[in-house]
Amino acid sequence: SSEVDSAPLKSSFDVKSFPVRSSKSKTLDELADQWENGFTFAPIRESQVSRAMTRRYFNDLDNYAESDIVIVGAGSCGLSTAYMLGKARPDLKIAIIEASVSPGGGAWLGGQLFSAMVMRKPADAFLTDLGVPFDDEGDFVVVKHAALFTSTLLSKVLSFPNIKLFNATAVEDLITRQNSDGTLRIAGVVTNWTLVTMHHDDQSCMDPNTINAPIVVSTTGHDGPFGAFCVKRLVSMQQIEKLGGMRGLDMNTAEDAIVKRTREVVPGLVVGGMELSEVDGANRMGPTFGAMALSGVKAAEEVLKVFDE
Ligand code: AHZ
User: Fold this and answer.
1) By alpha-carbon position, which residue is closest to atom 38 of ligand 1?
2) Three-point CA angle 197, 200, 202, nearest 5°
3) Is the ipTM, as predicted for this complex, more than 0.95?
4) Regarding beta strands 269-271 and 215-218, do their DSSP bridges make them parallel or antiparallel, or are they unpaired?
5) Which of 14, 84, 150, 241 is most buried as measured by Cβ atoms within 10 A of its Cβ?
6) Strand intervals (E) in the chain
7) How confident is the model over 285-305, as pLDDT tens digits?
8) What residue ranges line ligand 1, CB within 6 angstroms?
9) Looking at residue 92, what is its pLDDT?
10) Mean pLDDT, to the nearest integer, of 192-214?
């Protein structure tokens, strides 16, 4: 430990300039002979672990304070949007803000507490693109476990070098700018760690942080403790008159409506997934996820129009 304790660790903001000690990597086969004889982990000092995490996190906060695209909510629609954008535009900086510690929203189970996930055709195209296997049942397909869909989608999204997921972080407000004609444009998001957001009533003065971006995609789901956040804020800031309120369940009409209505609801804010049902008074679909994937595909297309202009 003295070697670890005495090693000079220069403080520097640049992740790449961080000192790295050489410790040869081994294969698992090489390790197999060593459990009883000479097995040790490479040495570490606690501050190295702290710095390895905080340096990267604060570097990301610094880097993504100016993003090209912010996606609010990492449920099935938000992650599908991120996947399409990450694939199409490796040159754009994309921040995903997810209030929960665990990304994925409601897509870890297929419905009630059942495992399988149903997608109506033609959303099987999204699964094929993603490489998720399914059973073909004619008009719809079934993934054997919703978690296979969500974990595959998540792993692909997180692998894009131009996408950063800030989880356990809530969007608390929207940044706005006034155009010369007096209309408003959404120009970014106001964030806080979710645990802080949850304590504004019992702790004073916990001001938020911000991310500027020319376009924000909101996919925060239907109304609930967290859901429909951005569109509810549009009402309170008088950018839309009122919410239509999500209607009862009708699978056939609901899925078509969500995809069809995925759009830029006010300048700078594209809305996708079930958050849209609150804007337009559309039905819910219950446990069929095709509209979430294809709303994500369409939301990505809407966003890219901004950069193609
Ligand atoms: O934690 C939320 C979830 O992961 C996150 N979120 C909500 N408010 C947020 C905020 N800041 C940051 N202010 C926030 N994150 O948004 C995510 C929404 O995921 P979801 O799975 O609830 O929504 P979705 O539209 O992607 O998928 C909806 C799935 C549904 S609901 C439904 C029905 O009720 O009939 N049917 C389907 C398929």
Assistant:
1) 289
2) 135
3) yes
4) parallel
5) 150
6) 69-72, 94-98, 117-120, 135-136, 140-143, 163-167, 169-178, 184-193, 209-212, 215-218, 247-249, 263-266, 269-271, 283-284
7) 999 999 999 999 999 999 999
8) 72-78, 97-100, 105-107, 170-171, 219-222, 226-227, 229, 273-274, 284-286, 289, 292
9) 98
10) 94
Ligand 1 atom closest to the CA of 274, numbered from 1? 25
Ligand-binding annotation for 77, yes or no, is yes
Query: Rounded mean pLDDT of 240-258?
Result: 97
Could you tell which of 193, 222, 234, 253 is best to mutate to test the pocket of ligand 1, judged by most ligand atoms within 8 Å of the CB?
222
Q: How confident is the model at residue 10 (pLDDT cuts 50, 70, 90)?
A: very low
At residue 11 the predicted structure's pLDDT band, cuts being 50, 70 and 90, is very low
Residue nearest to atom 35 of ligand 1 (CA): 286
56 appears as a binding residue in the annotation? no
Q: Which residues have CB under 8 Å from 240's CB, separation 6+? A: 231, 234, 265, 266, 279
The answer, yes or no, to whether residue 2 has pLDDT greater than 80, is no
CB atoms within 10 A of CB 131: 8
b/e map 241-269, b = 16+ CB within 10 Å: eebeebeeeebeebbbbbbebbebbbbbb
